[in-house]
Amino acid sequence: MSQQFFMNEGVFDLPELPFVDKTVHLLKAPIAPGKELGLVVCRAVVKAERTLDEVVSAHLEHEARSLRGFTIVGKSAGECAGYEAVDVASKYRLTDEMAYQRQVHALIGGVWMMFGVTGPLADRAACDELLTGVVASFQLRTG
Prior knowledge:
Elements: E1 2-7, E2 10-15, E3 24-32, E4 35-45, H1 52-66, E5 71-80, E6 83-93, E7 98-108, E8 111-120, H2 124-137
Antiparallel strand pairs: 1-2, 3-4, 4-8, 5-6, 6-7, 7-8
């Protein structure tokens, strides 16, 4: 017996193995010559005993180790599709300029979801506007 995996372009069969969906979507949009905004949506199944704060803290520790000059500039509680969320704004150094990153994290049915936008620090308002719109319009599919 097989299981079906759905994606935007179609559907395919997988054997009955314990596959875990760790889909990452990455979208990019130019905003000026040589500048772009990146939108990423990540997901991962988390152990039932892990809290949202623990998952976010682990992710931010990874970011601090991976991104040069990583600094959190804001963190607040929020909501995503009716679920508790954590909203984090940060900055870090790219090769020749500072980047701005804003992320919204939520645990939805045992799945960590992170919506993130990255762009030049000077375009912080555009990053915030994009992420606010994405999170506000996000709806869970049923069926």
